[in-house]
Automatic annotation (TrEMBL):
It comes from Streptomyces acidicola. This is Uncharacterized protein. InterPro entries: PPA1309-like (IPR047681). NCBIfam families: PPA1309_fam (NF040618). Residues 53-72 are annotated as: Disordered. The lineage of its organism: Bacteria, Bacillati, Actinomycetota, Actinomycetes, Kitasatosporales.
Length: 181
């Protein structure tokens, strides 16, 4: 079953779910992936050959966003440092990132040992019995709009994908910063 959203969903929500579905098709244990979001109608008008290669011949949806995957994110470089190096051309309306992480339920916060450095904390989370693997897809537009999709590995079906604008606020803010002048 496809998790393609209804046409009544916002273009940003449709783009986030399209990227989530794409990432889902690649399976788990994947590296982070970065996408430029471009206005589909503008892409068709300004770069018709690229639009054709991307299969964007249908002109019935003039309000959509087309995700275009960017080069691979350098391995070993912290994500926040990498995002700090990005600058987008004017033709890019927004961007999105999909990344896998371990997460704990809020109830586990009280049991985090004091004084752990980042490496020890990551190890503690990885060994915690209540940890969950999650794939987060976060997208932002230049105008500040944002959307996210979360998919748990243990509930890896399109009907279990959670969406919302404030699910991963820190990552949304980091992506928004890539549009700062």
């Amino acid at each position: 079953m496809s998790n393609t959203p209804p046409m009544t969903a916002s273009p940003l929500t449709r783009a986030v779910l399209e990227i989530d579905e794409y990432a889902s098709g690649l399976g788990w244990d994947q590296p982070a992936r970065l996408f430029a979001l471009v206005d589909t109608a503008r892409l068709r008008a300004e770069q018709p050959s690229l639009a054709d290669r991307l299969g964007l011949r249908d002109e019935s949806d003039s309000s959509g966003l087309t995700p275009i995957e960017q080069d691979e994110i350098p391995a070993g470089k912290p994500l926040d440092e990498f995002l700090g190096t990005i600058a987008w051309p004017d033709a890019v309306a927004g961007c999105a990132l999909t990344v896998e992480r371990l997460m704990l339920p809020p109830s586990a916060e009280a049991s985090v040992p004091d004084g752990l450095d980042e490496a020890r904390l990551a190890k503690w989370v990885a060994e915690h019995p209540d940890r969950q693997e999650v794939r987060m897809t976060v997208a932002v537009l230049r105008d500040g709009a944002r959307e996210s999709a979360l998919r748990l590995r243990e509930k890896d079906t399109a009907t279990e994908v959670l969406t919302g604008s404030d699910l991963v606020p820190g990552l949304a803010e980091a992506l928004t910063a890539t549009f700062a002048d």
